[in-house]
Design goal:
about 1200 residues, mainly beta, 5-stranded mixed β-sheet, 87 strands, about 5% helix, extended, Ig-like_dom_sf, signal, cell-cell adhesion mediator activity, cell adhesion, Ig_sub2
């Protein structure tokens, strides 16, 4: 199929066909259990983009994945012809898929450019991919050019052209100077979309010689540079002010075309003095504000996600104080084909009728072509049940064996769309996909949706029943949707119960049960109130809530719609918020939010903090005990308690706590019963039967609780039947053949009367109709024996006493004891994804054979041996990975490359593991090797080093060789240029020559396989030296000992100069002999390295001075000059004597430099040089 050619249109007239037996499109279920057993034509699940630009430094990977039953096979075409993958050694098709990996590391990448198309085929049909155009990314060099220097007068407009080379994809353009600093852009100077640099008017500061245009190519991450452009702005005859004019685009009108869905970019750049302002408007309409943006100082208008309504005339206006100019851009919006309704897969039963529709739109109108299994429909075998009508294919009375994959291709001048849709003819009995016994919970007066997802061919009919007997019709308050979902618009508590959905077709019937629970809404009964609190006092916000007792509530407090401050002054109670020691920062709006899993309610109140009123010092104490307790209005379950509050001691009572003592069941233990506000003196108390009550009251203020009041008189309630049943009822089998029913017993307080017993009831779920029961007392569990292995039981535990039974207990589902699984997973297969990762798939075991609660599966795997090893090595320790739940696959990470592994799978329940599956063997491909085992430098020469290394401990494949990189390291630890060498796998030593003497080198060695290089092993080593010098050279002038030595020498010379100066002033002579004797002082003689005396630091022995001699400042000795000549101490040969013969020339070294030292500028200074610098 050629996706780029023009498609021949079908019928021009659209036929309206009424089909009395047309089947509704049957959706393919996603449930893998359903899919596993269904034949299915191929479906393309992954493919590369239509336009694939590849990096020539990397392999080409063209994706093509498909699913189907049986698994599809794959083939490819290139440029319309069959592409034989097996004949090209550089092309690899991944196992189990059609994805191609093309190795271009040693090939010309251009050879693989072209148009590729993938085909996936099985016995039920053929699916094809898009045409995938493969192109190599390119970053060409700038054509050679010579830019003439530009000289302009101030105020004129100017354009600097960039004209970058055409790359693939196009480059990103920007302007910089020689220092790689971006040139500043503003309203006057801007960069156009084509990369050119525009000056609306030039200024003297625009003068520079380094206007450089750069092009960055994204795919290759390379940057190309244009030759610099020199601009000189003269102000000798500057241009005067002028009206605006358009530099881009030219003229008064222009046109532009944009495709639907793309971004429209319109650009107007104007010249003028002063610099004009740019504005935009659309003639006859408004700019779409949500999709419009302005850029480049409003010179560029962008409209994203263009649609047909964005076509029209756009006016850009340039304005300065001398006038206005307009330019109109007429925009035309075209559209590549886009889907209105893509064809969808059809599953039809025999003799049913189906319709495939391919609805597309575009501008110009796309042409539609149909294909069957990749063949044009007009060339396909004739099928009288098939009728093509432009964008519709009608399949009438399909028969078994007529499954196929249809392709719809829609194209116009701007692109094409291609979609696969299979038609599978199946006969399948109904299946209900919604999990059984699902519980739906909703809030009263909200809608409820009960699902009954089903699958079958023909499509099953869904009917609903409530409580297994009331047939539900499609009428108020119920609505049955086409997908079988039952909707109750306004759910009420009476709608709670058990619902049954039944799926039926001509091949069978299937039912499923779900449950609906309608809960009470959450409501805030007492909202927090507005508070005005003095600074330093406490603020209390109450928030009392009513909610469904079966839902767990969560109370959250917010301050100004954010979290409460992290401050211990804020205390959150069950139904209140207390803020202690209030500060000004605590002012704001406080909101309480009560959340349950189904709904929430909220309320807010404000807190205002005012200045505290100055008061004299007040003593605060705990309140006194309440007194005069009295019981009135006595009934079977209630009594009213009144009391008289004690003294509050300057701190208002916040609340009263009422406690009781049960003299019958727990004498001596006081239990909190309820709390009331600090302003109340009465409380209505709810009581339980068969309790001997005595009450007392405690008051609470900011200081604390008071002492308890004196107890009230005793009040006894009469016995009654239990009000509640035991909680935490569970049924768990501890071993095969039993069921242990356990519960939390009632307390004596909860028993409501004497003779407490428990009626334990059980029956096998969905099997037994009658309940078995047993009454027990003084125990918290009961064991049922002789049960089948791991079957569900319905369990009830009811409380009884001498006065009757408790309420009807809730039914709890428990399971009898588990046993080890009987069967092993089968159809174990392994997919190797990489050298270290494999994926194992298996067929889950049948549920009955699990014989317990399925915990998951365990995969045991072990490395048997390496593929390159000649002898079978000892097995490695077996490894285990667990996968929880009803899984059918798992991943094995961390594998060793190029190895043989074996594995087996076991199913796991709570009792233990089942038998193992048959062992499965698989191999991992090659990977990158480990680093070489060692790297040693064994021979240090003046200009050479010998390296030895060992092979990696694990090659992880066939060792292809080694790569050695090395580079010099100078004394500042800076790295020099890298040199690279490669070696064969059997080479483990090399001698490197032509190295620098006395230089430290760093080496990096890695092994490689066909998968690439492994990690480096590094080593450092130095070449040998003339003398013993550290490998990293040290600047001697920075050493402490040397600085101290220089100071001492300078001090001695200074003393010598002073003596000389005194002698000169006395008119005395300074004989040469005395000069020589003065310099014979060993304290100032140069030091030799071999005997500790001073000497010149020179590169050759020929330039060492005679011991005890004085050298010139450049460290050399002239053989034709006398050692005792005073010329040595003057400026060249200009030393002078006064009339009495004393030396009056400057005492300094010579300035001339010997020629052999011309390249030794980096050498450490000699002691004599340093000494001369002090004189």
């Amino acid at each position: 199929m050629d996706g780029n050619r023009k498609w021949v249109p079908g019928f021009e007239a659209v036929l309206l066909i009424l089909l009395s037996h047309t089947a509704v499109a049957l959706e393919v279920p996603l449930d893998p259990k359903v899919l596993e057993g269904l034949p299915q034509p191929p479906t393309i699940t992954l493919q590369s983009p239509k336009d694939y630009i590849f990096d020539p430094r990397e392999n080409i990977v063209i994706h093509c994945e498909a699913k189907g039953k049986p698994q599809p096979s794959f083939s490819w075409t290139r440029n319309g012809s069959h592409f034989d993958v097996e004949k090209d050694s550089k092309v690899l098709m991944k196992p189990g898929s059609g994805t191609l990996v093309i190795d271009i590391s040693q090939e010309k990448a251009e050879a693989y450019e072209g148009t590729y198309q993938c085909t996936a085929h099985n016995e039920h049909g053929t699916a094809v991919s898009n045409n995938i155009i493969i192109r190599q990314s390119r970053s060409p060099l700038w054509s050679k050019e010579r830019n003439e220097a530009i000289v302009v007068q101030m105020g004129v407009s100017l354009v600097l052209q960039c004209r970058p080379p055409a790359g693939l994809p196009p480059p990103v353009i920007f302007w910089m100077d020689n220092n790689f600093q971006r040139l500043p852009l503003d309203k006057r100077v801007s960069q156009a979309l084509n990369g050119d640099l525009y000056f609306s008017n030039v200024l003297p500061e625009d003068t520079r010689s380094d206007y450089i245009c750069y092009a960055r190519f994204p795919h290759t991450q390379t940057i190309q540079q244009k030759q610099p452009i020199s601009v000189t702005v003269l102000d000798s005859s500057p241009e005067g002010e002028r009206r605006p004019g358009f530099m881009l685009p030219l003229g008064t009108t222009s046109t532009q075309m944009v495709l639907r869905g793309e971004t429209l970019e319109l650009e107007c750049i104007a010249d003028g003095l002063p610099t004009p302002d740019i504005s935009w408007q659309k003639d006859g309409g408004e700019l779409p504000s949500s999709r419009t943006s302005f850029h480049n100082f409003k010179k560029t208008l962008k409209i994203s996600d263009v649609n047909e309504a964005d076509g029209g005339a756009y006016r850009c206006t340039a304005t300065n104080n001398l006038g206005t100019v307009h330019h109109i851009i007429k925009v035309t919006v075209n559209a590549a084909p886009f889907w209105v309704s893509a064809p969808r897969n059809l599953i039809l039963a025999p003799n049913e009728t189906g319709i495939l529709t391919c609805r597309v739109s575009g501008e110009p109108k796309p042409q539609i072509s149909w294909f069957v299994n990749g063949v044009p429909i007009e060339n396909a075998p004739e099928d009288h049940s098939r009728k093509v009508d432009d964008d519709t294919v009608i399949l009438s009375s399909v028969q078994s064996g007529s499954s196929a994959v249809y392709q719809c291709n829609a194209s116009n001048a701007f692109g094409y769309l291609m979609a696969n849709a299979f038609v599978s003819v199946l006969a399948e009995p109904p299946r209900v996909l919604t999990p059984p016994n699902r519980v739906y919970q909703v809030i009263t007066n909200s809608p409820a949706l009960l699902h009954c997802a089903s699958f079958g061919s023909p499509i099953p009919t869904i009917t609903w029943f409530k409580d297994s007997q009331i047939s539900i019709k499609n009428s108020d308050p119920y609505v049955i949707h086409e997908d079988g979902t039952l909707e109750i618009h306004v759910a009420q508590p009476l709608n709670s119960g058990k619902y049954t959905c039944i799926a039926t077709n001509n091949l069978g019937i299937k039912e499923n049960h779900v449950f609906l629970e309608v809960k009470e809404p959450t409501r805030i009964l007492k909202q927090p109130e507005y508070k005005v609190v003095q600074r330093g006092l406490s603020a209390v916000f109450e928030c009392k809530v009513k909610h469904d007792p079966s839902l767990v509530p969560t109370m959250t407090w917010l301050k100004d719609k954010g979290e409460l401050p992290d401050d211990e002054r804020f205390e959150v109670d069950t139904d209140s918020l207390i803020i202690k020691d209030v500060t000004d920062e605590d002012e704001g709006t406080y909101t309480c939010i009560m959340n349950t899993t189904l709904d929430q309610d909220s309320a807010s109140a404000m807190l205002t903090v005012v200045e505290a009123t100055p008061t004299p010092a007040i003593v605060y104490e705990k309140p006194d005990s309440p007194a005069d307790l009295e019981l009135t209005d006595q009934t079977e379950r209630t009594v009213q308690l009144t009391w008289t509050p004690g003294d509050e001691h300057n701190s208002p009572t916040q609340k009263f706590l009422i406690q009781y003592e049960d003299l019958l069941h727990e004498p001596g233990v006081w239990i909190n019963l309820t709390e009331v506000a600090g302003t109340s003196t009465t409380a209505q108390l709810n009581l339980s039967p068969y309790v001997y009550y005595s009450f007392r009251v405690r008051a609470l203020n900011n200081v604390g609780y008071s002492e308890p009041s004196q107890p009230s008189r005793q009040y006894r309630t009469n016995p009654a039947a239990p009000d509640e049943n035991p909680s935490d009822v569970h049924g768990v089998g501890l071993e095969p053949g039993n069921l242990v029913i356990s519960w939390t017993p009632l307390t004596g307080f909860q028993s409501n009367g004497p003779g407490l017993e428990y009626k334990v009831q059980w029956r096998q779920k969905d099997i037994e109709e009658n309940w078995s029961s047993k009454n027990v007392a003084n125990v918290s569990q009961f064991v049922v024996s002789g049960t089948p292995t791991y079957v569900p039981y319905e369990i009830k535990v009811q409380a009884l006493n001498d006065y009757g039974s408790g309420p009807d207990p809730e039914v709890v589902i428990g399971y009898s004891g588990e046993d080890l699984p009987l069967s092993a997973p089968d159809s174990v297969r392994v997919m190797v994804h990489s050298s270290t990762l494999a994926e194992v798939h298996w067929e889950p075991v049948a549920f009955p054979s699990v014989r317990g609660k399925l915990q998951g599966y365990k995969v045991y795997y072990c490395r048997e041996r390496g593929l390159q090893e000649t002898e079978k090595e000892t097995k490695q320790e077996e490894q285990v990975l667990s996968f929880s739940g009803n899984r059918s696959e798992g991943r094995l990470p961390g594998l060793q490359p190029y190895s043989v592994y074996s594995l087996f799978v076991k199913v796991l329940n709570s009792k233990g593991e089942g038998p193992p599956s048959p062992s499965k063997t698989f191999e991992t491909p090659e990977g990158v090797p480990e680093q070489p085992s060692f790297l040693n430098v064994v021979n240090h020469g003046m200009d050479s080093l010998t390296l030895e290394w060992g092979p990696p401990t694990n090659n992880n494949g066939r060792l292809a060789g080694y790569t050695l990189k090395y580079q010099p390291v100078n004394y500042t630890s800076e790295l020099g240029p890298v040199k690279v060498m490669t070696f064969l796998a059997n080479e483990t030593t090399i001698t490197l020559g032509n190295l620098n003497a006395s230089m430290l080198y760093k080496f990096y060695l890695s092994a490689r396989t066909i998968k690439g290089p492994g990690p480096d092993i590094t080593q450092e080593a130095s070449t040998a030296m003339d003398t013993t010098v550290p490998s990293r050279q040290v600047d001697i002038a920075t050493q402490g000992w040397f600085i101290g030595l220089m100071c001492a020498i300078a001090l001695l010379i200074l003393v010598l100069l002073i003596v000389c100066f005194i002698k000169r002033n006395k008119g005395g002579k300074y004989p040469v002999k005395e000069k020589e004797d003065a310099h014979q002082d060993p304290e100032i003689q140069p030091m030799k390295e071999d005997d500790g005396t001073f000497g010149e630091y020179s590169d050759t022995e020929d330039h060492k001075p005679l011991k005890g001699s004085r050298t010139p400042s450049n460290g050399t000795v002239r053989r034709d000059e006398s050692d005792d000549s005073l010329v040595d101490y003057g400026e060249g040969g200009d030393g002078q004597f006064n009339e009495d013969g004393s030396f009056i020339g400057q005492y300094s070294g010579k300035k001339e430099k010997d020629t052999h030292e011309g390249n030794e500028s980096s050498e450490a200074p000699s002691p004599v040089n340093a000494m001369n610098s002090f004189v």
